Amino acid sequence: MKRKFLMIIFFSGAVSFSNAQVLTNDQKAVQNTVIEMFEALSNRDSIALKKFCTSDILLFEYGKTWNLDTLIRKAIRLNTASDFNRVNTIDFINTTIDGNVAWATYNNQAHITQNGNRLTIHWIETVVLINERKQWKIKVLHSTFLKRS
Length: 149
Prior knowledge:
Layout: H1 2-19, H2 25-42, H3 46-51, E1 53-61, E2 64-66, H4 68-77, E3 85-98, E4 101-114, E5 117-132, E6 135-148
Parallel strand pairs: 1-6
Antiparallel strand pairs: 1-2, 3-4, 4-5, 5-6
């Protein structure tokens, strides 16, 4: 009985492991760009944010079209709460590269503390990135709001 149980665990693990996506270095770099961009937002660092975005980035948020200036104004300059803290959890669904263009889809969950209030916001997002001078940069970000708690 014990042997059968161990065999079931072994084969279940082998099947799960075989379904795991092995990422290329470029796919990892694309994902890292997304993660670092959100870290810059969390740190309210507009200089770092600009490193991960093209100058003509378009963001589609809450039915509106934003540019980099809008993102900086709404997410950084107007965000002045002294107790502000944002922790991002990004779970990538797919990352694809075709030449100098890449796109990734992921679940994004932000745990935010601001003005004594805590909330969690969940989006599903897709980004399009381009490779500029050997660095991936976000050119388009489309965000679909899923849940706020």
